[in-house]
């Protein structure tokens, strides 16, 4: 279910005040965007562009899978496409052909993680340049500087937003795991 009101298309505007009081379930469900800074007051008493969308259609979600990156270790996809984004699951430094870590060093695992991620991004129709957010999980935060040096070689400016955490443990005792979100 979706509705939009756009003045330039001569579609009647929806009274947002009425919607707010008469349809409380619309608030907080789905996505909302408004293209104006003056939502409730406008000099001509007209409302700005507003769009709310709610979808339960499973066709908007598509799994991405490639043999050029390690298979998922559980009941999840390597990546999922949805709403013009590619959500890449946590990637480990496994060699796709063997299913084993490239080595025990965080540097080698980081390189392999980013190579694997690149293959998944490519399979999903994206690239490193399209990545808008990454999350790095490290077994030891002391490896932060080493990881940064390698990471910087893969992501062009402007660099994606990023969070980095030290975690208690990673799957298969990995030294690093990285997940990301890319715009497609």
Describe the 3D structure.
The structure is a single chain. With 184 residues, the chain is of the alpha+beta class. Helices cover 20% and strands 27% of the residues. The strands form two sheets. The chain has a six-stranded mixed beta sheet with strand order 4-5-6-9-7-8, with helices on one face. It has a three-stranded antiparallel beta sheet with strand order 1-3-2, with no helix packed on it. Strand 5 and strand 6 (85-91) form a beta hairpin. Helix 2 runs parallel beside helix 3 (144-154). The protein is globular, with a radius of gyration of 21 Å. The chain starts with a strand and ends with a strand. The model is unreliable at 1-11 and 16-42 (pLDDT under 50).
How do the strands and helices of this protein lay out in sequence?
Blueprint: E1 2-5, H1 16-22, E2 31-34, E3 50-53, E4 61-64, E5 79-82, E6 85-91, H2 106-123, E7 131-138, H3 144-154, E8 161-166, E9 176-183
């Amino acid at each position: 279910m979706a509705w939009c009101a756009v003045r330039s298309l001569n579609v009647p505007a929806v009274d947002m005040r009425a919607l707010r009081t008469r349809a409380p379930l619309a608030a907080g469900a789905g996505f909302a965007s408004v293209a104006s800074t003056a939502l409730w007051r406008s000099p001509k008493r007209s409302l700005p562009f507003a769009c709310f969308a709610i979808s339960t259609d499973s066709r908007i979600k598509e799994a991405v899978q490639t043999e050029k990156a390690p298979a998922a270790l559980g009941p999840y996809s390597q990546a999922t496409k949805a709403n013009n984004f590619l959500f890449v699951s946590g990637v480990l430094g496994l060699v796709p052909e063997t299913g084993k870590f490239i080595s025990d060093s965080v540097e080698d695992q980081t390189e392999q993680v980013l190579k694997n991620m690149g293959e998944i991004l490519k399979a999903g129709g994206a690239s490193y340049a399209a990545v808008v957010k990454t999350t790095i999980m490290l077994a030891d935060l002391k490896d932060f500087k080493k990881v940064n040096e390698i990471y910087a070689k893969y992501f062009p400016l402007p660099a994606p937003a990023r969070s980095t955490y030290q975690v208690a443990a990673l799957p298969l005792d990995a030294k690093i795991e990285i997940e990301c979100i890319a715009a497609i």
